[in-house]
Amino acid sequence: MLIALWILNGLLALAFIAAGTMKALRPKPALVASGMGWADDFSDPSVKLIGVSEIVGGVGLILPLLTGIAPVLTPIAATALTVVMVGAVVVHVRRKESATPSIVLGVLSAVSAVLGFIVVAG
C-alpha cells in the first residue's frame, strides 16, 4: 500500500503544486482570461490564498512521509486538500461550470487520506 500511496501522492502533488503556483503567481485578470472565470467571484487575495493552500497541501503530501518527520501530516494534508476541492466543486456547480476536474482531485485526495492513515497507523 505504501507504493500506491507514493504514486498517488506524487501525481496529486504535481497537480496541486502546478495549479497552486499558477493561481499564486498570475494576476487575477490573466487567470480569468485563461478560462478560470470563477476567479472573478473572488478577491485577488482570496485567489492567491487558494493557490498558496494548494501549494502547501501538495508539499504536505510528500515532505512529511519522505522525511519521516511527523508522517501523520501527509494524510492530514490530503484531507485538507479534499476540503479545498469540495469548495471548488461547490463554486463550479453554482457557476454552472464543469466540476469534473475538482471532483476527480477531491476523490483522489480522499483516497490518499485513507491510504495515508492506513500506512501511518500500520
From TrEMBL:
Membrane topology according to the record: Multi-pass membrane protein
Keyword field contains Secreted: no
Primary localization class, coarse: membrane
Localization in the cell: Membrane
Matches recorded under InterPro entries: DoxX
Signal peptide: none
Transmembrane segments: 6-25, 72-91, 103-121
Record's GO cellular component terms: membrane
Pfam family, one: DoxX_2
Keyword field: Membrane, Transmembrane, Transmembrane helix
Name of this protein: DoxX
Organism for this UniProt entry: Microbacterium terrae
Lineage of origin: Bacteria, Bacillati, Actinomycetota, Actinomycetes, Micrococcales
